[in-house]
């Protein structure tokens, strides 16, 4: 999938008067991508391409390696896209335009699902359709917030992201290495930056597309992902507001259980798409309980995709 991202970068428009460098960080004990990176270099001859290996296993370590490199290199801005994505030709132009228009420290944008592969089974297509529906609803909610002047309340993930490095130099905000295998480090960084006064926003015009591997098109994966996200969020709430969080827990659990029942009842009328929501909501219930028992998320102990 990394090759698809590189192809989209090669066709990406660069804003006028802007110099771009690419940094590829492989989270591994040794380099295995040299040939792929060398091929990419031939497709972007006017842009430097730096290839680094981060041996400490965990996505937060890899993201911090990128952030520190960009800061030390004296760069002005840093943009992230994930290795299972590809970006529109105007992706960088639109991110930078939004950042400049509102003088933002962090700006995000939509990550839509790429079409399912032709060999995807009917069952997997149903799951993909449920994921796509949920993704579209989230994007519509973000667009509504932006239109009402509430873009600063949108949690920004690093799937499609730009940061003003002056802010990170000044504040020292970094991805939480304690979440290296848990995930959620990008939302935590957004929250930490917001508390320190970062101006954050979101644009609907810088589009990235995520390819969903077939091994993620299962109810088990949807359950695990939601469970692990719920663990991360609940542990953070317990750490900052333990009493209030525990008081509210029974109501949250009851509400989620009811929603699981409603999603299951709606299955005949949604061609099965609400099964994805039911699996995700069930995972979130288990995640809340696991967090209360002191369990941690280890979402990235298992790697999906190729």
From TrEMBL:
InterPro entries: Glyco_trans_2-like, Nucleotide-diphossugar_trans
Gene3D superfamilies in the cross-refs: Spore Coat Polysaccharide Biosynthesis Protein SpsA, Chain A
Pfam families linked to this entry: Glycos_transf_2
Annotated Glycosyltransferase 2-like domain residues: 3-127
Name under which the protein is recorded: Glycosyltransferase 2-like domain-containing protein
Organism: Phyllobacterium myrsinacearum
């Amino acid at each position: 999938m990394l090759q698809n991202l590189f192809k989209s970068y090669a066709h990406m428009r660069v804003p006028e008067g802007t110099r771009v460098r690419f940094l590829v960080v492989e989270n591994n004990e040794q380099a295995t991508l040299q040939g792929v990176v060398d091929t990419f270099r031939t497709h972007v001859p006017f842009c430097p391409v730096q290839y680094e290996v981060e041996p400490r296993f965990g996505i937060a370590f890899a993201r911090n390696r990128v952030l520190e490199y960009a800061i030390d290199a004296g760069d002005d801005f840093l943009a992230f896209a994930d290795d299972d994505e590809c970006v529109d030709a105007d992706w960088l132009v639109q991110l930078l335009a939004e950042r400049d228009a509102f003088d933002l420290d962090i700006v995000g944008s939509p990550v839509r699902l790429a079409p399912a592969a032709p060999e995807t089974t009917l069952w997997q297509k149903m799951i993909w359709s449920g994921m796509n529906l949920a993704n579209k609803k989230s994007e519509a909610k973000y667009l509504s917030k932006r239109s009402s002047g509430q873009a600063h309340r949108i949690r920004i993930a690093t799937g499609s992201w730009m940061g003003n490095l002056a802010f990170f130099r000044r504040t020292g905000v970094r991805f939480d290495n304690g979440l290296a295998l848990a995930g959620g480090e990008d939302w935590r960084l957004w929250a930490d930056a917001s508390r320190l006064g970062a101006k954050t926003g979101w644009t609907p015009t810088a589009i990235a597309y995520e390819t969903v591997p077939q091994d993620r098109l299962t109810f088990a994966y949807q359950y695990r992902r939601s469970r692990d996200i719920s663990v991360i969020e609940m542990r953070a709430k317990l750490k900052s507001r333990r009493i209030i969080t525990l008081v509210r827990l029974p109501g949250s659990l009851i509400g989620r259980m009811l929603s699981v029942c409603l999603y299951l009842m709606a299955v005949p009328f949604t061609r099965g798409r609400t099964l994805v929501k039911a699996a995700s909501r069930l995972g979130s219930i288990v995640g809340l309980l696991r967090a209360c028992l002191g369990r941690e998320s280890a979402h990235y102990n298992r790697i999906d995709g190729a």
